[in-house]
Write a structure and sequence with these properties.
Blueprint lengths: L1 E4 L7 E3 L3 E2 L5 E3 L7 H9 L4 E4 L3 E5 L16 H32 L4 H17 L1 H4 L12 H19 L4 H13 L9 H5 L6 H7 L2 H11 L4 H9 L20 H16 L10 H10 L7 H11 L7 E4 L4 E6 L9 E4 L13 E3 L8 E4 L2 H9 L6
Antiparallel strand pairs: 1-5, 2-6, 3-4, 3-5, 7-8, 7-11, 8-9, 9-10
Length: 388
Amino acid sequence: MKSIPVQTLKPNSLLSGTAYLDESFILLSPETPITEELLRLLNAWGYSAILSEDTLTSKVVVENETNETPAGTFQDDAEEGVAQEETQKFYSSLLEFTHRLFDNFLKRSAIPIEPLTEMVKVLIATLKKNRRFLLRLGELDRNGFSYIISHSVNVAILSVAIGDTLKLPSHKLIELGMAGLLHELGMFKLPDTFQNANRPLTEAEKRALSAHPLLGYRALRELGFPPNVTLAVLEHHEKEDGKGYPQGLTGDKIAMSAKILSVASAYDAQIVSRPFRSARSGYASLVELLKDSKKTYDEQILRRLVYTLSLYPIGSLVELKNKALAMVHDANPEDPRHPDVKILTDESRKPLPEFPIIKLTERSDLDILRVLNSEEIRQLRADKILRA
C-alpha cells in the first residue's frame, strides 16, 4: 500500500482506488472526491499521510456534484441511532420485567424461574450485540422506576459483562444475571423506609439493613433457586478483609459470583444520583473503587470491570491533550487507559460535522487529559457545542 502525503491532496481530486487512514480504517471509497472538510480534519488530527493502493489522479468533480464527506467514512449516526433506540427499548423492558418480578414476590411470595431465565438469556444476547450502548448506564432512561429496580437491572448487566470477560460458560452467566437481578430481594422483607430513604441511613438503620442478604438468600432457597444464585445473593456484601456482612468472610472464602456482584453493585451505586448526593462520573467511580481494591474488592474482578468499561467508561465525555472534546466510544481490553474515542470538536471547540473514531493506542498525541464534569457538560450543551 502506498503512502500519500496529505499536503499533496487537493479539494475535488480523486483516488482511483480505496483510501485508508490506517491499514483497516476506510477513509474514502474509489472515485470519491476529497473535500475541504476532510482535509481540514486530517490536518487537525495530525495525519501527515493516507494510504492507498492507487495513486492520486488529477480528475476533479464538476461543481454541481456533492462536496460532502461520503457516508461511512465516519461513524454512521443513523445506524448508531437505531442501536441506541433498540438498547433503550430493551433496557425499559428489563426494568418493567424486574418491577413485575418484585411485585409478584411481594403479593404472592413467588418468583417464576423459567421466565427469569429466559429474560437473562435475552440480556446476554443484547449485551453481545449492543454492548457499547448497554454499558452506558448513566445515560439510559430509567423511566421513573425506583432506585432499587434500576440498581438491580444495572448490577445484572454489569455482572454479566464482567462474567463474559472471565469467559464463564453460558449456564454460569445465566446464574450470574439471575443473581444480579435478585441480589436486593431481601430489601423487600424490610420496612419501606430502607428502599425509599432520601437521606443517609443512621447507624441503627445500617445494622438492620445488614440483614437483607440473609433474608434474600432464605427466600430464594425456599423458592428452589440454584445454590450458585442463592450463595451470590447471600455473600454480595462480604469484603476481602473480612469487614463485610453478614458472615464476615475473607478472600477465597467468598464465592466468585458474589465478588462480581459486589464490584458491580458498588460501581452502579456511585454513578446514579440519590436524593442525598450527586452521581459521580464513571471515571471517578472507578478511581474510588481502585483506592479500596485490596481491602474491599477482589482485584481480579475489579480489573475485569476496568477492562470491560475502560478506565474512562464508555459514553464518558473527555478533553484530549490538544483541547478537543471527545466521547469514549469503546473500551480497549488490552489497554484500559487508551479507549477508542469519537471526536466531537476540533481543538478550538468547534463542533465537527462528522465524528471520526480514533484508537488512542495509535495516537499518543491525543491522550485523554481529563473527564468533563456534569456542570461543564450542561454548559457545553447549552452553548450548542455538544449535542443534547
